[in-house]
Design a protein that fits this description.
Strand order of the largest sheet: 4-5-10-6-7
Order of helices and strands: EHEHEEEHHHHHHEEEEEEEEEH
Largest sheet: 5 strands, antiparallel
Helix content: 25-40%
Distance between the termini: 47 Å
Number of strands: 14
Number of helices: 9
Strand content: 25-35%
């Protein structure tokens, strides 16, 4: 791992200024970033810590407002999330392990753009949006628009995710199911998120290079499936057929 500078700005403008360089990377939980640096995949000369920016709050103002530095464990344990957005809390229980969830952050998990992550497809199905801050100002995009491909996000240089907003569920129901090849908290071979209500929203992940919306079950046949060490493309396509039906049933039976 190459030597690097660790900067700890005390304000968002300071952080954005420090990030405005090709060899700078934001440092939130670091669970994925440090692994990639050790492997030589990333070689930043400057890491900009976000821990002093006050982005770790969970608030409700009709919608659920999640600060980007909120840890996955804090989100999982939030009583208001358990009560009003139960699919999020249930999903987090099998997202990696407790040691990782204690450190990994919501913003980092979204920005990492690994298609095997559990939160992006669920948040996309829930209609969540992310607030992105950069030197040019603030913009808001749907979660699904964060992704351009495998490990590729649509953030511009120097931009940060600062907040995630999840609309109130109301009478709608949601569920996320994944199929793993080993333990329940392993990377999924496929993941399926469903929200049912006045509009049906279905997103799949792990089988595709980014969270991908499905119109219905028939659209699985035209989906470009990515085979990997968790299963071949044909195997994953069959898993999707099965898990989509299960996820829809789970959402229909969800309590709220």
């Amino acid at each position: 791992m190459v030597p690097f500078e660790l900067a700890e700005p005390g304000s968002l403008p300071e952080a954005l200024a420090l990030l405005d360089a090709e060899d700078a990377r934001a440092f939130s939980g670091g669970t994925a970033l440090m692994l990639m640096m050790k492997a030589g995949v990333l070689r930043p000369r400057r890491l900009v810590s976000l821990r002093k920016l006050g982005l770790d709050r969970i608030e409700v103002n009709g919608a659920l407002q999640i600060g980007a530095m909120t840890t996955l464990r804090a989100l999982e344990r939030s009583e208001v999330v358990k009560r009003d957005w139960p699919a999020i809390a249930q999903t987090l229980r099998t997202l990696s392990n407790v040691r990782v969830r204690n450190v990994a952050t919501v913003g980092g998990a979204l920005a990492h753009a690994d298609p095997h992550m559990d939160l992006p497809p669920l948040l996309a199905a829930l209609g969540a949006q992310v607030t992105i801050q950069g030197k040019q100002g603030t913009r808001t995009v749907p979660v699904e628009d964060l992704y351009a491909g495998y490990l590729e996000n649509t953030l511009q240089r120097g931009e940060l995710i600062t907040r995630v907003e999840v609309p109130a569920l109301g009478k709608r129901r949601a569920a996320y199911l994944k199929c793993t090849t080993r333990s329940a908290d392993d990377w999924p071979a496929v993941g399926v998120a469903v929200m049912l209500g006045d509009e049906k929203r279905i997103f799949v992940s792990a089988a595709t290079d980014r969270p991908t919306r499905l119109v219905d079950e028939a659209s699985i046949e035209s989906l470009r499936i990515e085979g990997d060490l968790h299963g071949s493309a044909d195997y994953k396509r069959q898993l999707l057929r099965v898990y989509l039906k299960r996820a829809i049933d789970e959402a229909r039976n969800a309590s709220h």
